Predict the 3D structure of the following.
Amino acid sequence: MPSRFRCIRCGREYEPGSVFRCECGGLLEVVHDPMGWSRSVVDSRLCPMGAPYSSGVWRYKELIHPGLASNMIVTRPEGNTNVYQRRTVSEYAGVERLSMKHEGENPTGSFKDRGMTVAVSEAVRQGAKAVACASTGNTSASMAAYAAQAGLQGIVFIPDGEISYGKLSQALAYGSKVVQVPGSFDDAMRIVQEVSRDLGLYLLNSINPWRVEGQKSIVFEMLHQRGWEPPDWIVVPAGNLGNTSAFGKALSELLELGWIDRVPRIASIQAEGAAPFYKMWKSGASSLEAVKPDTVATAIKIGNPVSWEKALRVIRETDGVVDVVSDAEIMEAKAVVDASGVGCEPASAASVAGVKKLVSKGMIKPDEDVVCVLTGNLLKDSDATIGYHTGKLKDLTPKQPNAPIRVDAGSMSASLRRILGE
Ligand SMILES: *Cc1c(COP(=O)(O)O)cnc(C)c1O
């Protein structure tokens, strides 16, 4: 049977189309037929040189979009991201075994490419002419690139003045129309849903269940790289909650297939100023109350996350936790990740800051095996990085600043000796 959409609330099923909410209001997810598919298939695809199986997404095609014809796949290819261990970072976080899976190594510099390759391919399958998204930046950068490759017109809605220049420049350069909307990401999200319905644009936000299917491959690939040996924890920054949702779905599917024998606990880390999911989880409320978001980590500056219902189920099913970190904790953790030579954008460092916090609370034990997902590339938000190192970030005194130094041309050697501490 071909893949279909199923409502996570009432179980009603639909043909995959461009409607992403059930009549009852529930979120939809993709379900595939159980199959006698084996690990040896994906093992044999590990080193092919050509598309689509050279992609760290399409290597797992049967678990992501089994029915899609090869000639419809729009792939760069993406994925195949590295895993790093750095002593300075694990000491900072307080765990012996800490690895960082660097999703900033994707083609447009964030994990968004993993969901985008699948959802844009589906747009092609449906014969869409134009695609649209609301974005805090990385979704628009990714969509613009994949739309360009597929020959589709892209239209992105961004909160005016709220996204970093690195990301905005990508969307412009790749040729999408960029519409600046007054307000926050949440306003842009509401507007894009209305406009897409009115104009028949194919919507590429993570409310689109195919995005979540593609993002499952972060977990597939991570476990594959570990010889299918699960860590104790997977720690992920949480904004719109697409990743949290995707990780849980990936883990339960692998468990069902028997490829893994236990499920790691998932920790979703929000920024203190944009933490509606944390507030809901902590209070035990049954629905999410939107907040007005404020954080230096623009990629997770979201007050009304669309996938909270899927994510809540994941936190419950994986015995997971939700926590928050301050902007200062995010930027200090980022400075450590950056200085280790790995580097990431602000939102990504929420994962490492989150580990430190959960260790200090005794929730993560120092001898547990922890994987942090670094969601985006260091170059995405150079304003925040330079602002940190020059002490110009609002309300934040950097503990590890490394500002550029001005020296007089005449006394260069003497000045340098002083700087290098000789
Ligand atoms: C989109 C994004 C996030 C947030 O991920 P969600 O799936 O929306 O929770 C975090 N970090 C970066 C760099 C992102 O681009």
Summary: Residues 414 and 420 are 10 Å apart (CA to CA). Residues 3-44 form one domain. The chain is about 40% helix and 15% strand.
